[in-house]
Design brief:
Largest sheet: 8 strands, antiparallel
Distance between the termini: 80 Å
Shape: elongated
Oligomer: single chain
Helix content: 10-25%
Order of helices and strands: HHHEEEHEEEEE
Length: about 170
């Protein structure tokens, strides 16, 4: 029975020692050392040397491509809605193709503007969409080669109407 009392007393002492609120290694009020700000050395400025082997076509990619086929489009209505890239990003239904056709406009920078893709669309022209951008009051859709596929204007806060490069009407909405 003495052994049982010994273990009971030991258990009470261990439980009581666990109730102590201060543990010396955790109670130290020390802060981590502050990090040095970057850069630690002075920054120099100057002109960059031209890179060797730059393709002139790539170097002039920001210039207008005069070989693009552009559809004959009706102008947007007077006082049309202002369009922002942020407002365009996301998924859109393309009922002008079919009720299951989805156009996804990502806000990821890519050749020709920003990334775009389609899902469950029937039109071969719409299936080729790979990029998009906003120019003034128009949303421009491009294929993966950088050619313009369609141009649309805002007909309501959640609907855009326009024409494809082949002259077919196109619309998308949320």
């Amino acid at each position: 029975m003495n052994g049982l009392k010994y273990f009971a007393l030991l258990g009470v002492l261990l439980a009581a020692s666990g109730c102590n609120r201060s543990i010396s290694s955790f109670s130290q009020n020390t802060r981590p050392q502050a990090l040095l700000s970057s850069p630690t050395e002075p920054v120099t400025s100057g002109e960059l040397q031209p890179a060797d082997g730059i393709n002139p076509e790539i170097q002039n990619a920001g210039e207008a491509n005069t070989n693009q086929q552009v559809a004959n489009l009706t102008p947007p209505p007077e006082g049309g809605r202002q369009i922002t890239r942020e407002g365009m990003a996301g998924s859109w239904t393309v009922p002008s193709d079919n009720s299951q056709c989805i156009l996804i406009l990502a806000f990821t920078k890519w050749d020709g503007g920003y990334r775009a893709t389609t899902r469950r669309c029937n039109s071969e022209e719409i299936k080729t969409i790979g990029a998009w951008d906003v120019k003034g009051q128009r949303v421009l859709l491009f294929n993966r080669s950088g050619d313009q596929v369609a141009s649309l204007y805002s007909s309501s806060p959640v609907r855009y109407d326009g024409t494809t490069a082949s002259g077919k009407p196109i619309a998308f909405s949320r």
